[in-house]
Design brief:
The chain has 245 residues and is an alpha/beta fold. 37% of the residues lie in helices and 19% in strands. It is built from ten helices and ten strands. An eight-stranded mixed sheet has the order 1-4-5-3-6-2-7-8, with helices on both faces.
């Protein structure tokens, strides 16, 4: 195990913290009925909150007593390592290239039961590395060691790495920014994952205002992945009062 310990900021305002507890509950309920040891977190664009969701979901699950591995698999433009305030000379890419062991790239965090593997040095041939047998072996090894492995990936709007990873994991969680909900990007994200035969277990609607949060909670507006039909339900139009405009 790497000697370095990462300090993970875990102070959230109550509504956000509650939202991640609800997300944890839904995911663990799913896992109770189906195999879900490895989970890919993916978005179409950057700045949709993908990394934030990955970090806080990992914290929430670790706090339930499960042993969790948080992994940065964005080998081109990693953001997770920046959020954790560190820089590792070795990481996932180092292991795939055969330069070190899994134990050597795994770090402790300040959160009990939560461990971390950085992306390692950036790689121009990341797609080939992610699609290698070495990466597949890596996933098989860590899913035996941990109760849950949460993987932060590159955005699908830039490279296909995230879809390749999603095709190899038990489940995929889409993160979609609120204002992008009705755009073609949300549909394209879903289509790319389906083309890769990824198992989409749901979507997180992120960056929702307090007003809209209350609105969604009343179920006047629904957006969800329907596992039976494999479709995205069209949202009902919201009627605004003059005071809302």
């Amino acid at each position: 195990m790497c000697a370095k310990t990462y300090e993970v900021y875990d102070k959230l305002n109550p509504p956000v913290e509650e939202a991640f507890r609800e997300l944890r509950t839904n995911i663990l309920f799913y896992a109770a009925h189906r195999k879900l040891k490895t989970l890919t977190v993916v978005s179409y664009n950057s700045r949709e909150g993908k990394t934030t969701v990955a970090i806080n979901l990992a914290i929430a699950i670790a706090r339930s007593g499960m042993k969790v591995l948080l992994m940065d698999a964005d080998l081109r433009k990693p953001t997770l390592i920046k959020r954790l305030g560190g820089k590792d000379p070795i990481g996932l890419s180092s292991f795939i290239l055969g330069e070190c062991t899994i134990d050597e790239v795994t770090s402790h965090t300040s959160i009990k039961n939560l461990y971390y593997i950085s992306c390692g040095p950036k790689q121009p041939n990341s797609t080939e590395l992610i699609g290698s047998n070495r990466f597949s072996e890596f996933l098989k090894t860590v899913e035996e060691e941990y109760d849950m492995v949460i993987i932060d990936t590159s955005t699908l709007g830039s490279v296909v790495d995230g879809a390749i990873i999603a095709s190899q994991t038990d489940g995929t969680l889409m993160v979609i920014e609120n204002r992008a909900l009705q755009s073609y990007k949300a549909k394209k994200l879903k289509a790319q994952l389906e083309n890769a035969n990824a198992n989409i277990i749901g979507a997180v609607l992120n960056k929702v205002s307090r007003r809209d949060y209350k609105f969604y909670k009343t179920q006047a507006y629904n957006f969800y992945y329907n596992q039976n039909s494999g479709s995205i339900k069209k949202p009902k139009k919201r009627r605004f009062k003059k005071s809302d405009k």
